[in-house]
């Protein structure tokens, strides 16, 4: 007996009482370096581990509390998980409190240990002490897994019906977590929600509104069921507005703003697309909007939620104007966050209430001068949304001024917006050309790739402005050659209309006196300038070549072209060699090949004209309109796909439509294939067509007969190329006859979701050893529930009989959200490529 007592005393002496949490915090804060703090933590963790091994029940609670503090500092504390479970099983409230806190911090549903808590939580939910029940509800609502929620949902539902307001508010929040984890248990809580809104306790009201909101968002049936509660919610909100000072709920003079915001959000859900509910809440929304104090941030938060509710429901027009005026007042607030949310909200409503937003145009434009980049970007986007035919001149003046002074990160988006607005609302062609030239002069290096071909098309179609445009561009070229898009457009125009520049036929402004040699000096200077990119040099050389039929200095032009026949730039060298061939062997064809470009039809996304970009130059390809209209893909989309695929070993898709007659002539063949070539080189000449007698050497052997003839069916098994997120892409195969090297692949896109997939675009790319042609799809909408398919034909030329590989890119819009995905297809049937 005395021996046992002696050993107990020895153990007691070896294990002194651990330090308290307050002392540990004070000690850690005295550490001067991170290493010193780490040393203290490691030492204390070692002592805590020793205590856990000794099963020291006396100080387990203190040790776990210290461990949680270390966990909050970022140090590992996983070895205390089981100790938390032991504290939860304890009968002491202090132990349970620390144990449940530790479980919420150290455990989650990814760890199996948390399942051991289920029985303890169930017992505590039925405990006689409300505070122990509250701890169990908090823990279940914080980290309960779907299995735990299924097992304990019955206890939560019982507590939701209790008369104890302390437990009801915690049970309501726990029910929200249960519904999120197991939505099918939603109906279990429906009877308990009947009397929740009649509760006087604000905490219960708040959590009840959160629970109703969650149920309405997750179930259309629940939404229809709870719409009958709109008058009761309106009455609660009215009492909050009209009630006097209540110290326990007052925040900056406003009665329980948190509950007001929650009720407004629930009203927004209930009133959306419902006339009766919207009518019932119109008056109370007007009262909130007019009676809420705006001097404090609390009032602004309520007003912002009120505005969002007004905009989402079927509210009266006067109420919507009131909401937009509130956002207009927000723009004058000194708080940057309030200004930002106001601009964001106005941007969402500008399409439906354009005239009301227009009243605040000057305030919105002033936000372009804000120092905050987020506000500046939102103001820029909203300014472009406000542009129309009546204010185009004034708005463009402000936006061009912004373009001059803004940071480089804004210039690309601003330039694109100016281009689109000018194209849509330009009051005259001269104004349109001047505006775009101003953008190119100011921010030419930041414009999109398609700005050059678009401006060239605009100039080509403005016949009466040719002399004025070429003179303006020539002057701009003399001032600055650093803006490459501007230089490219100017080079193209000088090559096309150089004779008008030299003759001085400009009527819009005083003509300048320019000689042929001066024009050629400028173009030759571009060829040797270090600022010029390879694409710009190509434009310049082509312009010089075109001037050989417009100027008399043919010998000088011959010398310049022959010099670049040995250029180290392969692109420039090939052009020069081909141009030299025109001077020598085909000189009789040169005037016809280099004649002025015809007027191009207007390009649109579904129109009959395509712009195929080849080596930096743009040439039109007029095709017959189809019904339904073909869904064309811009060249830059194909280039984006090419960038995603690596760029060096793949050939981008050329989107086209079927020609109305056989492609027997060389020019028609080139129009069909665009810049699709085995070597990736340019077309042999910049002219829009090539005579039948001289087919392109890049496609030698393919021009003597139609490239794609009648299709003969072959026994090639179909395959599933893509099946994800409800979208399924099937490939079926056929052989082209008489050319067995051409595989004809038909894609069949089907949609198993419950909503149509709109703006559907299919893109593909293959290695350089193949040639690929993608024809227009049958539609750009994939019907829901597999009620139809979208078909599209791909033609692949595989002369070397290599195994076929393809990378595909799918873009579409589903339920208003854009979706984009990439996939690689490598499992083609051997019969499709052998």
Automatic annotation (TrEMBL):
Membrane-protein topology: Peripheral membrane protein
Keywords, alphabetical: Cytoplasmic vesicle, Golgi apparatus, Membrane, Protein transport, Transport
Pfam family, one: Adaptin_N
The keyword Transmembrane helix is annotated on this UniProt entry: no
Cell location: Cytoplasmic vesicle membrane; Endomembrane system; Golgi apparatus
Example GO BP: intracellular protein transport
Keyword Ubl conjugation: no
GO cellular component: AP-1 adaptor complex
Domain GAE: 714-829
Record Gene3D superfamilies: 2.60.40.1230, Leucine-rich Repeat Variant
Similarity annotation: Belongs to the adaptor complexes large subunit family.
The name this protein goes by in its record: AP-1 complex subunit gamma
Organism: Labrus bergylta (ballan wrasse)
């Amino acid at each position: 007996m005395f021996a046992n007592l002696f050993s107990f005393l020895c153990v007691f002496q070896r294990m002194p009482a651990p330090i308290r949490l307050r002392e540990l915090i004070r000690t850690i804060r005295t550490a001067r370096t991170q290493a010193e703090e780490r040393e203290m933590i490691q030492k204390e963790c070692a002592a805590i581990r020793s205590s856990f091994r000794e099963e020291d029940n006396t100080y387990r609670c203190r040790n776990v509390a210290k461990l949680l503090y270390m966990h909050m500092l970022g140090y590992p504390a996983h070895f205390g998980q089981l100790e938390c479970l032991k504290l939860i099983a304890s009968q002491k409230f202090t132990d349970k409190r620390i144990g449940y806190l530790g479980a919420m911090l150290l455990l989650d549903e990814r760890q199996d240990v948390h399942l051991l808590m289920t029985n303890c939580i169930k017992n505590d939910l039925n405990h006689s002490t409300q505070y122990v029940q509250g701890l169990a509800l908090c823990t279940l609502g914080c980290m309960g897994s779907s299995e735990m929620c299924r097992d304990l949902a019955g206890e939560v539902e019982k507590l939701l019906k209790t008369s104890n307001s302390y437990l009801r508010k915690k049970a309501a929040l726990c029910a929200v977590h249960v519904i999120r984890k197991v939505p099918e248990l939603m109906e279990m809580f429906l009877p308990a929600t009947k009397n929740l809104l009649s509760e006087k306790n604000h905490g219960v009201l708040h959590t009840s509104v959160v629970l109703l909101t969650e149920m309405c968002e997750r179930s259309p049936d629940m939404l229809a069921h709870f719409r009958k509660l709109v008058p009761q919610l309106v009455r609660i909100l009215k009492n909050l507005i009209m009630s006097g000072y209540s110290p326990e709920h007052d925040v900056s003079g406003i009665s329980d703003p948190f509950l007001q915001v929650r009720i407004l959000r629930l009203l927004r859900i209930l009133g959306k697309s419902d006339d009766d509910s919207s009518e019932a809440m119109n008056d109370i929304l007007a009262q909130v909007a007019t009676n809420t104090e705006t001097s404090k941030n609390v009032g602004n938060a309520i007003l912002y939620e009120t505005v969002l509710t007004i905009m989402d429901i079927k509210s009266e027009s006067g109420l919507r104007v009131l909401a937009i005026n509130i956002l207009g007042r927000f723009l004058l607030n000194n708080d940057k966050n309030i200004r930002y949310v106001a601009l964001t909200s106005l941007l969402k409503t500008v399409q439906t209430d354009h005239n009301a937003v227009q009243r605040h145009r000057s305030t919105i434009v002033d936000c372009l001068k804000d120092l905050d980049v987020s506000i500046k970007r939102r103001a820029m986007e909203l300014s472009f949304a406000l542009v129309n035919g009546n204010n185009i001149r004034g708005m463009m003046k402000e936006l061009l001024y912004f373009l001059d002074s803004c940071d480089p990160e804004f210039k690309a988006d601003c330039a694109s917006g100016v281009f689109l607005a000018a194209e849509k609302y330009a009051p005259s062609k001269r104004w349109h050309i001047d505006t775009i030239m101003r953008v190119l002069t100011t921010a030419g290096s930041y414009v999109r790739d398609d700005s050059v071909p678009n401006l060239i098309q605009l100039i080509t179609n403005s016949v009466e402005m040719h002399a004025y445009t070429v003179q303006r561009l020539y002057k701009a070229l003399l001032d600055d050659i650093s803006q490459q898009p501007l230089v490219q457009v100017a080079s193209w125009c000088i090559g096309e209309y150089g004779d008008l520049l030299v003759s001085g036929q400009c009527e819009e402004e005083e003509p300048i006196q320019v000689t042929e040699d001066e024009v050629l000096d400028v173009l030759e200077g571009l060829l040797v300038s270090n600022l010029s990119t390879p694409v710009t040099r190509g434009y310049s050389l082509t312009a010089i070549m075109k001037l050989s039929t417009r100027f008399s200095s043919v010998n000088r032009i011959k010398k310049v072209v022959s010099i670049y026949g040995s250029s180290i730039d392969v692109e420039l060298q090939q052009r020069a060699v081909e141009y030299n061939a025109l001077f020598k062997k085909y000189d009789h064809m040169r005037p016809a090949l280099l004649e002025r470009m015809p007027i191009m039809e207007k390009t649109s996304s579904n129109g009959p004209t395509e712009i195929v970009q080849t080596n930096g130059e743009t040439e039109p390809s007029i095709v017959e309109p189809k019904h339904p209209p073909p869904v064309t893909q811009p060249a830059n989309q194909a280039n984006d796909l090419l960038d995603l695929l690596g760029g060096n070993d793949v050939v981008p898709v050329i989107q086209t439509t079927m020609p109305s007659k056989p492609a027997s002539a060389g020019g028609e063949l080139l129009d069909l294939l665009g810049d699709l070539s085995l070597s990736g080189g340019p077309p042999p000449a910049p002219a829009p067509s090539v005579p039948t007698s001289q087919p392109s050497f890049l496609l030698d052997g393919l021009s003597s007969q139609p490239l794609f003839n009648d299709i003969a069916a072959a026994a090639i098994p179909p395959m599933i190329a893509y099946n994800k997120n409800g979208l399924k892409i099937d490939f079926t195969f056929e052989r082209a006859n008489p050319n067995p090297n051409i595989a004809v692949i038909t894609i069949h896109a089907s949609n198993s979701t419950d909503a149509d997939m709109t703006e559907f675009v299919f893109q593909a790319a293959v290695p350089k050893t193949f040639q690929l042609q993608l024809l227009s799809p049958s539609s750009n909408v994939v019907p829901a529930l597999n009620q139809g398919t979208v078909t599209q034909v791909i033609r692949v030329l595989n002369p070397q009989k290599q195994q076929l590989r393809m990378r595909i890119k799918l873009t579409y819009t589903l339920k208003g959200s854009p979706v984009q995905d990439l996939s690689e297809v490598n499992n083609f049937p051997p019969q499709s490529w052998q």
